Amino acid sequence: MTIRAGVVAVQGDVSEHADAIRRAAASHGDEAEVVEIRQSGVVPDCDILLMPGGESTAISRHLHREGIAPEIEAHVADGKPVLATCAGLIVAAADPNDDRVDSLGLVDVSVERNAFGRQADSFEAPLDVTGLDEPFPAVFIRAPVIDSVGDVEVLAEWDGRAVAVRDGPVVATSFHPELTDDARIHDLAFFESEADRREASKNERGV
What we know:
The protein is of the alpha/beta class. It is 29% helix and 30% strand. Helix 1 packs across helix 5. 47% of the residues are buried.
């Protein structure tokens, strides 16, 4: 099976995310066709979406200016998976705590930008993530933190603060999962849920 994956390519580690998506798909015997999203008209043909890090105000402005924002909102309304990382989390949050960010309101959380310090304060930490058997080597770079949650599932915490959540088809992380060789976060966000949907479909058909 071929999955069409769209990566918002305004800023961030686009190629690293693309590689992680391909690795995660391959682990399920699937192929991933990765396309870069810079303008409207691409999202509607995608099965899964990824919103990388970067500068949240620039990303949000681009998404709204180019007409991509309503397409992402429709994608989520259809129940299709999204992974939002670092600045992507801020743009996806219901409350980004920054008037300069025109958020998408996809994840019922509020966030605090750069909560873990500046670039020089970057660090890697082993995270216990719901759905993963072994700790994930999470890389935090000028990372936001989730300072309050609504109706979401908290997948991981660090130092008592939420750093990964799931809200329906959207998984959002404070850290950069693409900066390791470990594709399990991409797998958790995209392909495990896809596998569950396929199994449910089989059960409905009595296969």
